[in-house]
């Protein structure tokens, strides 16, 4: 398998980890935020892991949290945030390293319909602003209809249109 001319199967474990950290972002149905860290610290993690300084990581995290509308919630821990706010922190964390591909697995599945629409709007807006590929897996037909291309699966098989 290749990505932009690189043979991913030739990568060592460390190279694959670096590749994932720098090239891909992941947003899950359940936010997977670290409860002992505040919003800023949760978003900083990919940058710190990638070797950026604490100051650069803080700046990047604050910029992304501002883009997702949470500049006033930087010091709040996940338990102090609503479900929609937690998902926006997770989105900021996924985007902070400027990935070229964002994978979103049921990004609205754990949210009420209004908050789910807000998160969907945010994902579409950020996809355009960051000029990245967005791959969404969802059971939410309304969300799927908003995407420019969709593929349906049934019983593990791709359905032909």
Low-confidence stretches: none
Number of strands: 7
The number of distinct structural domains comes to 1
CATH class: Alpha Beta
The protein's oligomeric status is single chain
Biggest sheet character: 3 strands, parallel
Mean pLDDT: 85
Helix-residue proportion: 40-55%
Cα gyration radius (Å): 16 Å
Report the order of strands and helices: EEHEHHHEHEHEE
How are the strands of the biggest sheet laid out side by side? 3-4-5
Q: Structural class, from helix and strand content?
A: alpha/beta
Layout of strands and helices, then pairs:
Layout: E1 2-3, E2 6-7, H1 13-23, E3 24-27, H2 39-49, H3 54-67, H4 83-95, E4 101-105, H5 113-130, E5 133-137, H6 141-146, E6 153-154, E7 157-158
Structural account:
This protein has 161 residues and is α/β, with parallel strands linked by helices. It has a single domain (7-158), classed as Rossmann fold (3-Layer(aba) Sandwich). Helix content is 45%, strand content 14%. The chain is built from 6 helices and 7 strands; from the N terminus they run ββαβαααβαβαββ. It has a 3-stranded parallel β-sheet with strand order 3-4-5. A two-stranded antiparallel ribbon has the order 1-2. It has a two-stranded antiparallel sheet with strand order 6-7. Strand 6 and strand 7 form a beta hairpin. Helix 2 (39-49) packs parallel to helix 4 (83-95), helix 3 packs across helix 4 (83-95) and helix 4 (83-95) packs parallel to helix 5 (113-130). The chain is globular, with a radius of gyration of 16 Å. The model has no long low-confidence stretch (mean pLDDT 85).
């Amino acid at each position: 398998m290749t990505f932009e001319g690189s043979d991913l199967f030739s990568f060592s474990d460390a190279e694959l980890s670096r590749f994932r950290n720098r090239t891909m972002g992941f947003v899950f149905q359940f936010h997977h935020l670290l409860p002992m860290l505040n919003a800023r610290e949760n978003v900083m993690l990919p940058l710190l892991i990638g070797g950026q300084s604490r100051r650069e990581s803080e700046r990047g995290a604050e910029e992304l949290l501002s883009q997702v509308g949470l500049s006033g919630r930087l010091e709040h821990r996940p338990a102090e945030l609503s479900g929609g706010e937690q998902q926006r922190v997770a989105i900021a964390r996924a985007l902070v390293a400027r990935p070229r591909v964002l994978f979103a697995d049921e990004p609205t599945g754990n949210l009420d319909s209004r908050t789910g629409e807000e998160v969907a709007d945010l994902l579409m807006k950020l996809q355009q602003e960051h000029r990245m590929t967005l791959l969404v897996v969802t059971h939410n037909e309304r969300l799927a209809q908003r995407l420019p291309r969709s593929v349906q699966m049934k019983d593990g098989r791709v359905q032909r249109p």
